[in-house]
Amino acid sequence: MSRVLISSPEHCERRGFNTDARYKKLLFAFFTALTLFLALVVLVWLILHPTKPQFTIKEADINQLNLSSPRLNYSIRLTLLTENPNGKVGIYYDNLQVYVAYRGQQITEESTLPPFYQGQQHSDLLTASLVGNGLPVAASLSYQVGRDQTAGQLVLSVKVNGQLRWKVGTWVSRQYTLNVNCTVVMAFQPSALVTPLSSKQGSRCSTSI
């Protein structure tokens, strides 16, 4: 009958093998490689230093506007221009939600824009159709609308919220929160509160990430 020899850790140490030292070397090599990779990513990020995308309202149209009622009924169609000013960084846009606010109060339902990728120094046109069918509003809204009608201007805020990811080569960053705030000024016809309004003057938006 042959003998079965099983080497214990103590036996390996007596023969010159140190299992703990070998594992420590492997862990040290792994963490060294990981640290170098992260340092390279940070270095590339600092060198490229991506600039925030720019948003502009190109056109805004309101149909069947009636803000005198306690409940709103109208539709708004927006055309937004988004630009990537970076020469070496692409942008992925995710979960973009658009809505319109008036005097700090949301007056339309949110509209979801499809996700898309924007290449370096590219621009894209985005369109959104927003509705306010039977949306309840504050009782003071009619008074504010009357003041705007007297002034001859209706000022609306367009909000875009979502996430973006930066793309450098094959590397894609984690998601960052994107908040865009645009101001649209429309000429208010003094004759009636029920009227189509349109604004075709470019309005640059503020962007925060």
UniProtKB/TrEMBL annotation:
The keyword Nucleotide-binding does not apply. InterPro entries: LEA_2, NDR1-like. Residues 80-183 form the Late embryogenesis abundant protein LEA-2 subgroup domain. GO terms for cellular component: plasma membrane; plasmodesma. It is a single-pass membrane protein. Keywords: Membrane, Transmembrane, Transmembrane helix. The chain crosses the membrane at residues 26-48. It is found in: Membrane. GO terms for biological process: defense response to other organism. This is NDR1/HIN1-like protein 26.
